[in-house]
Structures are given as structure tokens and as C-alpha cells.
Amino acid sequence: MNQSRLHNVDALRGFALLGILAVNIWSFADPYFRSGTAHVDYTGTLDQAVRYLVALLFDGKFYLLFSLLFGYSFSLQLDAAQRADTSFKARMLRRGLGLFALGILHGCLLFEGDILNSYGLLSFFLLAWHGLSPQRALRRAAWLLVLPALLLGAMGLIASFIEGGERLKYSAEIAAKLAAFHGSAAATQAHFMGAFPGNLASLPFMGPSSLAMFLVGFAAGREQVLARIDSFRHLLPRVLWLCLPVGLVGEALIAAYSTFYPSMAGGLIAVSANMLVGPFLTAAYIALMLMLFETTAGARLQAALAPMGRLALSNYLLQSLVLALLFTGYGLGLCNRVPPLGVMAIVLAIFGAQMALSAWWSRRHAYGPAEWLLRGITNWSWTPSRLRTE
Fold first, then answer.
1. pLDDT tens digit string along 205-214?
2. Which of 17, 71, 117, 206 would be a feasible disulfide site paired with 214, CB 3.0-4.6 Å?
3. Structural contact between residues 215 and 129, judged by C-beta atoms closer than 8 angstroms
């Protein structure tokens, strides 16, 4: 049972990494991404169709899944600490600080959209609330989704009245990013360093949705949903057929709005709506994958994704490193030089290579490099990562 549960969690986490890569790559490849300004170079029908499908199927859904699994794993770590009769709070405080420190380095050196620093800080809230019952955790999650969504929506409406005077600023920021990514490694690093404070500043607005999904995952972990999948299997089709239509219809409208009528005000409104609609599509993805894992072909897919998920932190950081080497002044400087369809082809190539690398690494090591480091910080002790061979 334990082994099956771990495969479920790890395979879902590996699946989440695909969606995260499919979104994060645009921060490197497209200087217009989330700028509120229409792209002026790749404007063909196919280019627009690719951007629309990314917004429809990926944007804002997989970080929710990743956050939910973070909360689920938190409940597993709580159980493990109780079995080992060790101080859970001390371990989780060190873990949160370790994640925050890794996030600062990641954001300042490789990726302005880092989530690790946010996870580290938000994990302190989860630590403070770990005594909540599953029911109270879910109610608190609902408030954390709804209230910030309403706030961002109101900000978007206000911004729609003043945005005209801001367009020159947005254009200057696009030009500066493009110059940095086509420039030297020093110029690229200076861009990341300069952009990263904006990531921290967005935490009060974007953090609550991650924290909400932490709580949903924590509640699911307390009920051992993935450990006792047999008891919940009959609910999966109901979740799928309820959430999939709501998620797809809502996201189709949001994606059309953000793709074909881009603006900063519209972007805020789209993010606001996505906070409310995105969880439906995320829930549908979870139900679909768990149902698929029950089939013969799905079991093979689960086995292929699980090593990727076990090394999720290392793979997340590796994705940023590869993307930086491809698209910025650290390497080839391909930013704005690859059409959208080519960008998605790169996603598949990177993810396929990571799956193979993860399988190879997992046969030889108990932990990924970043997992080994974070585990050492959490436990304040260091154990060998390499597996013994007979």
C-alpha cells in the first residue's frame, strides 16, 4: 500500500512538472509573456493557437497541482515525524528556511518567477495551522481562493482606467529584457537580480492561492486519499465529469481574453478569474490521471513519471538552468528567436530527457542533489545519497 501511494504522489508530481515547464519556458523564450502587450513578431494563426492552448490547458493549473502535492507531502512528513518521535516544528522550520534560501538563489541567478521562496515562507503558515481538521482546512482554503481573487479583479478594473499611460513603461521593460537576454551573462544576471524583488512583492496577491492548495493537499493527506485510493476510486469519474466541463468552459473564455485582447488590466482580471476556475481543471486533471494509472498503459506511464516526481526539486531547478542556457545571455540567447510551436517542441524534448535522466539517477541514488541538500537541512544530518550495489 505504501509503495503504491508513493508512486501515485510521485507520478502526479512528475506530471505537474510537465505543466510547469510548459508555462515557465515562456518567461525565457518570449519577452512579451505576461507583459500585457501583444507580441509583434509571431502573429500568425498557428502562433496564436499555440499561445491559446498553453493558456487554456497549462497556465495557472499546474502550479496549483504542485502546491496541492506540497501540502499532501507535508501531511506525510508530519506522520513520519510522529512515528520517529522527533520535533516536527524544528524540522519544518529548517525546511522552510532551506526552501526560502534556495528560492532566493534560484530567483536571483536563473528565474525571476521562482516559487521556492514563496513555498518556504508559506510553509510557515501551514506549520502554524497543521492542527486544523480537514474540514476546517478546506473552509480556510476556500476563503484564501475567493478573497484574493476578488481583490485582484477589483485591481484589474481600476487599472483599466489608468493603463493608457503605462504602455510606454511596459514597452521599455520588454526591450530591457530582450537586450539582457541577447547580451552577456552579466547582463542576464543583472536582469534576474533586478526583476526578482517584484516576485517577492507579488506574494500577498499570488501566495494565498498556493497556500489554499497547500491546505487542500494537507486535508487530503490527513484523510490518506492517495494511500487509500480503493476507497475513493468510485468518486473519480464524478469529479472528472463535474470539474472538466466547468474548468474547460471557464478557462476557454479566460484564455481567449488574455491571448487575443492582452492588457495589464485584463491580465489581472484573467488571473483573478483563473483563481476561481483553475482549481476545477486541476481537479479534473488529478481525477483523469488517477483513473489512467489504473489501466495497463497508465501503470507504465505512472512508473515512468514517478522517478521524475521523486526528484521534483532537482528537476525544477534543472529546467530553469537548461532554459537559461538556451534562451538567455548565459548561453545561446534564443529569446524571441523561436516560434511558439518550436517552444513547445523544446518543452517535450527537455521533459523527455529529464524523464530518462531521472530514471537513470533513481537507480543509483536515493535522492536527487537538491533533495539530498534539503533533506540534510531539514534533519540537520547528512546521509549518503548513492544506493549501495551488491
1. 788 999 999 9
2. 71
3. yes
